[in-house]
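Transmembrane protein, putative: structure, please.
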Amino acid sequence: MFQDNINSDGYGGALQLIETQQVNIYYSHFISNKCLLKNGGAINFINVEYLGILDISQSYFIGNQAILSTGGAINLSKVNLILKNSQIESNRAQIGGGIYYQQIIPDFVLLLQNGIKQNNTIQNNYASIYGKNLGSTLRSIYISQKDITIQSSHNINYKQNQLEVEGIQSGEQIIFKKIQVLDEEESPVFIPSIQDQNYLSDDVLLIIRQINIEIICDQLNVEVQCVGNLKSSYFQNGGFYLTVQPMYKPLNSMIMKIKSNVFPQLVDSNNNIQFNQGQLDLQVILNFDQCKIGQIQKQFSNSIICESCPEGKYSLDILDGECKKCPDSAEYCQGSKIQLKNGYWRSNELTDDIIYCNYNPDVCQPQSNQSKFNCARGYIGIICASCDIYGEIWDDSYAEQITSKQCYKCSDNLSLIVLNNLLKFFIVIAYIFFMVRSLQNQLYIKLLGHYVKKSGILFLGNTCNQSSIFLQFKIYLKYIFRQIRKTKNIFQDSK
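Here you go.
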């Protein structure tokens, strides 16, 4: 049993093995050993010249610590670990809380990846930076969809370990708020602040200070450009923060890659490469959409970008060659937005045909959050000149009183509305009666003129003007009345 051993300035809390061909450990317990500054809380086994073998069976590693370095229980370099029927639990380190290995992937790890545990228990170990149970070379780059910010509406999908973005515009900025680097257990790296790194071992500092993330675009296509904060080694808020403005052409696709620093290769005990030396990368496919309303196409070097109209200008047609100046009738313009001043009206958000509400300027309220279709409550239609009688827009019925130019809610003003409608009814009836009488008089005159013309007494032609006809008609009437009086006198004399 190896218990409560402390190595204050060297390697391995209980055992230090260097350039050893093979070591067998059976039926042993390593409990609460500590390596205060260097690697390997219980065992540190380092080979440089040739492959070493560490065969462990029927053993326990519990509560060991490499407080400032790697390998809470076991730290290996160029050593194959054969592990059977053993327990590695509750050990701690900065990297690789249970086991940390370099250069060689141990046989038991390859078997474990295939679901063969060999009656081993490796659990509840802890690492501050990465590799809680097993630590080694970092394995992949990951970013959650919620940590990607794009202003326009878009879709993001993971497909076969690559990211695909639909609906982005050429020249639009993408913000990657938290790019994470994952270990072999698919847990993200945590890099402490500069102040907290002062006490870490040199081995740990060498590992974490090499970690960086960058964005690489297609450098062979001169039409593809990427600008922004494209590289960072600064870890914040759980990841790396990068911004990029990819530029190509609308309705085309391009590929960019998020890459890490170079990591060393890993081989198995038979010298077969299991992990190639190189950069980790996450491929991002960008499918550019056409420019949207409120944007104009603009040549930017060899690329074509979609540029949004700035404040004070607008565009409502994707074919516009340049943004238009905000009209005097608008309070504010930007992109496709035109915020009208009160007193003005337009039929919809996609037209700049703006009309002054001369009928009643007070009811055109485009600046009010309570308005609908630029109209105040109860008003609808062109320049808000009508009341919502059927409640199609405002849910309640509204009606107008005579000459008031005001719409009143019917349910709140029922008596006034009834009186108003009755008054309108009688006015309409009176108007109809007047028109009927007028038509009767006109018809009587036309009929009388017709029979006068037929009698041949007086000729009424189409070429006569109206005053002449009227004068002749008066003469004819006087003649008729004169004849009637003569006939009456003759009749009386005969009596």
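Notes: The chain has a mean pLDDT of 88.
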